[in-house]
């Protein structure tokens, strides 16, 4: 298979935005691209005959990127779907993704049950992840604030900006959690009136907008910093960014490798966690060294 | 949990429970619902999977047989009570409707 037969696409969906996932995959299939695998940032597609297909998502509490083999629950889901004419395509986070040639068919026929399964899945992953991010960012912001207040800082300008950026990041985390709650409430209301779960596209737009805001804020900081200290801070932040992305990618690749080797879910989670912490420590050492060099 | 601890059942929940009155597997439920309702109600496989998970966790149905990947279930006593309560609720609604519409005609 040549390189032109494979395509990678940046896919940053909200964990509960099943509708965007279904629509994206449907559009890609119509253009002749079939989903091959899902990843942290990029999803891989392979060339196929253009086909009008319907994609649908089921949230399963059993689906996990750490499970080496399908669980009993996943077997049950796949058997039911196969018997009903659906074909398993991929899985992402707690989504099981299926497709069918019959575009009139529905995988989920009770919105109340669908919402209940989404809520259960989000309690397991989405809410803990963003809560940890919120608490972590607030902790860093308070730590920097304390440094400013006591005058225990070498670079007052940098610390002030660190406070602003971490506070903003905490705000992003809180906004994401709150907007999920709003989506949940709106969907409950819609279902009570006989409708379906509301679209979560606005959540993603908001998330993207807030992240762009974070980059703008970091850019303003760098601009101000560069005027006083030269270009070294840009290089410093770039190294920081590259290392951060590398930590996420390497940890995920490591987790996938362990999954492939048949490690149990628990062992995989522990090993991946240890790997992540080790990489962060290594990154901090590298950062310190790069700061020293520049 | 859907419908506040199953005080009232959605149509799909109702027919899934009704099918499990006799021992059957998930695929049978989809077929039987289609037959009972003459195609009016359809239970999607994703919905059915989540219902089976939910009903099993709440001890509303129990697993009776595993034949390869095919699993069969049957209603428990609790499940029968939930179904019977929902039927009574629906019956009461019909009686209320009949009584009210009759008195309306008298006016």
Blueprint (SSEs and pairs):
The complex is a heterodimer of chains A (294) and B (107).
Chain A: E1 6-10, H1 18-30, E2 33-37, E3 42-47, E4 54-59, H2 72-83, E5 87-92, E6 95-100, H3 111-124, H4 126-150, H5 156-192, H6 201-229, H7 232-260, H8 265-293
Antiparallel strand pairs in A: 1-3, 2-3, 4-6, 5-6
Chain B: H1 3-6, H2 11-19, E1 24-25, H3 26-36, H4 45-57, E2 61-67, E3 70-75, H5 77-106
Antiparallel strand pairs in B: 1-3, 2-3
Helix pairs in contact in B: 3-4
What gap, in angstroms, lies between the N and C termini of chain A?
Answer: 44 Å
Mean model confidence by pLDDT of chain B: 88
Strand order of the largest sheet of chain A: 1-3-2
The Cα radius of gyration of chain B reads 16 Å
Q: How is the biggest beta sheet of chain B arranged?
A: 3 strands, antiparallel
Strand content of chain B: 5-15%
Mean pLDDT of chain A: 85
Q: Let me know the number of strands of chain B.
A: 3
Rg from alpha-carbon coordinates of chain A: 22 Å
């Amino acid at each position: 298979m040549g390189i032109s037969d494979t395509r990678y696409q940046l896919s940053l969906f909200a964990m509960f935005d099943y509708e965007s996932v279904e629509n994206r995959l449907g559009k890609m299939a119509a253009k002749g691209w079939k989903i091959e695998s899902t990843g942290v940032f990029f999803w891989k597609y392979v060339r196929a005959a253009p086909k009008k297909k319907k994609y649908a998502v089921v949230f399963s509490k059993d689906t996990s990127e750490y499970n080496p083999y399908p669980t009993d629950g996943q077997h049950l889901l796949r058997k039911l779907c196969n018997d009903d004419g659906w074909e398993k395509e991929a899985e992402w986070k707690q989504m099981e993704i299926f497709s069918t040639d019959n575009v009139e068919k529905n995988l989920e026929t009770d919105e109340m049950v669908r919402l209940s399964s989404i809520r259960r899945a989000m309690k397991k992953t989405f809410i803990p992840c963003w809560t940890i991010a919120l608490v972590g960012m607030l902790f860093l912001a308070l730590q920097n604030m304390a440094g400013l207040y006591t005058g225990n800082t070498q670079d007052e300008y940098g610390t002030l900006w660190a406070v602003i950026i971490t506070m903003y990041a905490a705000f992003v985390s809180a906004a994401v959690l709150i907007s999920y709650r709003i989506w949940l409430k709106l969907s409950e209301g819609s279902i009570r009136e006989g409708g379906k779960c509301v679209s979560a596209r606005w959540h993603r737009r908001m998330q993207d907008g807030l992240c762009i805001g974070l980059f703008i804020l970091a850019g303003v900081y760098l601009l101000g910093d560069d005027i006083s200290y030269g270009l070294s801070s840009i290089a410093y932040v770039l190294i920081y960014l590259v290392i951060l992305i590398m930590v996420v990618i390497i940890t995920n690749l490591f987790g996938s490798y362990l999954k492939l080797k048949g490690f149990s879910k628990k062992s995989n989670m522990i090993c991946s966690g240890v790997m992540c912490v080790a990489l962060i420590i290594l990154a901090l050492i590298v950062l310190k060294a790069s700061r020293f060099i520049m | 949990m859907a419908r506040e601890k199953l005080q009232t059942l959605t149509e799909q929940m109702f027919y899934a429970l009704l099918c499990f009155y006799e021992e059957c597997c998930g695929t049978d439920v989809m077929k039987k619902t289609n037959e009972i309702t003459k195609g009016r109600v359809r239970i999607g496989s994703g919905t059915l999977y989540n219902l089976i998970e939910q009903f099993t966790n709440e001890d509303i149905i129990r697993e009776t047989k595993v034949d390869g990947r095919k699993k069969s279930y049957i209603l428990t006593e609790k499940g029968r009570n939930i179904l019977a309560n929902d039927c009574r609720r629906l019956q009461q609604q019909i009686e209320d409707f009949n009584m009210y519409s009759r008195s309306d005609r008298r006016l």
